[in-house]
Amino acid sequence: MPIDSPRTGPAAALLRDFSLEMTGKDVPALEEAAAVVPSGTRVNVTFLGNEDLAMRVAAARAVREHGFVPVPHLSARRLRSQAELEEFLEALAEVGAAEHVFVVGGDPETPEGPYEDSLSVIRTGVLQRHGVRGVGVSGYPEGHPGIDDATLWSALTDKTAAIREQGLEPEVITQFGFDKDPVLKWLAELRRRGVDAPVRVGVPGPAGVKRLLGYARRFGVGTSAGIVQKYGFSLTNLLGTAGPDRFLRDLAAGHDPAVHGRVLLHFYTFGGLRATAEWIREFGADGRTP
Ligand SMILES: NC(=O)C1=CN([C@@H]2O[C@H](COP(=O)(O)OP(=O)(O)OC[C@H]3O[C@@H](n4cnc5c(N)ncnc54)[C@H](O)[C@@H]3O)[C@@H](O)[C@H]2O)C=CC1
Ligand SMILES: Nc1nc(=O)c2c([nH]1)NC[C@@H]1CN(c3ccc(C(=O)N[C@@H](CCC(=O)O)C(=O)O)cc3)CN21
């Protein structure tokens, strides 16, 4: 193996301790993927509006039973009461899945209960009472279609500070994207603002172009012709699939720990958990798409 192979090069260093994401419905997919995922890998369980508490807990339990570390999501605006928050955390603690959580605002325009944002959930002090030690929050290198940049920055600095004030460990996971330029710029700005928490850069797993574009449109992620061409797909060929090879190599090449701090990767799998796990293994092995 050449010494500059991705297995030992900068892209491989970024891949170390990557995390994955699944939904409550992905338990069978997790079983299929388990053999190719390193034990101890963090697996986030999303908080989708079309799934219930029992499904989310069952998924977190399955993650644990396969030897991975569950990171269940809590969606502030979707929680109807403090009792519901506590019920969820208790159920997670019972299956050994409450040590790490990811707290997100939640897409409902009006909160369904007492929490308007992630900060209010963090500030309840309830998390640590149920055994939580690490708390992830989200970051937006390309901004958010419904929230202005000043609000996003103050939310992020307030959240990471509040997590530490509660005696917990913060981590930031970014919205997925197809362009490493805004990611590196945003990381430099984040560090300039004094946030030193580790950042997991959100990356889409390999998927059909049509599906990737659909999710990008839904969440306000940039897909200009120039960006997607650089990423490796064309807007006129919707039948193909695309993985983050180029994105990761470019990100690794541009990553300067002195400027961007500690960076890891988080893979959004969008229904392709097994394909993503296999892709990561192949990429780590020889740096090429399978
Ligand atoms: N990055 C990700 O992986 C995910 C992001 N989201 C969505 O991103 C948005 C922001 O979430 P966080 O960064 O955790 O924000 P946050 O909870 O830290 O809130 C930041 C600011 O945005 C406002 N805000 C939060 N959700 C909003 C909404 N749906 N509509 C209008 N204003 C809102 C809050 O009041 C607050 O002022 C939410 O809509 C959330 O559902 C949802 C799921 C996953
Ligand atoms: N603003 C915002 N809101 C979100 O809800 C959100 C983001 N950003 N960024 C990415 C994450 C990951 N999200 C998702 C959303 C859906 C599936 C999913 O698997 N949905 C389908 C099955 C897959 C499909 O057929 O496309 C489902 O079961 O509902 C996964 C992750 C939601 N997320």
Describe this structure in words.
It catalyses: (6S)-5-methyl-5,6,7,8-tetrahydrofolate + NAD(+) = (6R)-5,10-methylene-5,6,7,8-tetrahydrofolate + NADH + H(+). Belongs to the methylenetetrahydrofolate reductase family. Pathway: One-carbon metabolism; tetrahydrofolate interconversion. This protein has 290 residues and is an alpha/beta fold. The protein has a single domain, classed as Alpha-Beta Barrel (TIM Barrel). 43% of the residues lie in helices and 17% in strands. It is built from 13 helices and ten strands. The protein has helices at residues 10-15, 27-33, 53-65, 82-94, 118-123, 126-129, 149-165, 180-192, 209-219, 225-231, 245-254, 257-260, 273-286, and strands at 19-22, 42-45, 69-75, 100-104, 134-139, 169-174, 199-204, 207-208, 241-242, 263-268. The strands form two sheets. The protein has an eight-stranded parallel beta barrel. Strand 6, helix 8 (180-192) and strand 7 form a beta-alpha-beta unit. Bound molecules: 1,4-dihydronicotinamide adenine dinucleotide and 5,10-methenyl-6,7,8-trihydrofolic acid. 5,10-methenyl-6,7,8-trihydrofolic acid (MHF) is lined by residues 23, 25, 46, 48, 50, 107, 175, 219, 268, 270-271. 1,4-dihydronicotinamide adenine dinucleotide binds at residues 76, 104-107, 109, 116-119, 138, 144, 146-147, 151, 155, 159, 175.
- How would you characterize the largest beta sheet? 8 strands, parallel, barrel
Provide the CATH architecture. Answer: Alpha-Beta Barrel
CATH C-level label? Alpha Beta
Treating each run of at least 4 consecutive H or I residues as one helix, how many helices? 13
Number of domains: 1
Strand content: 15-25%
Total number of strands = 10
Which whole number gives the mean pLDDT? 94
Named once each, the bound ligands are: 1,4-dihydronicotinamide adenine dinucleotide, 5,10-methenyl-6,7,8-trihydrofolic acid
* Rg for CA atoms: 18 Å
Strand order of the largest sheet: 1-2-3-4-5-6-7-10
- At CATH level 3, the topology is TIM Barrel
- SSE order, as H and E? HEHEHEHEHHEHEHEEHHEHHEH
Q: What class would the helix/strand composition place it in?
A: alpha/beta
Helix content: 40-55%
Name the overall outline.
Answer: globular
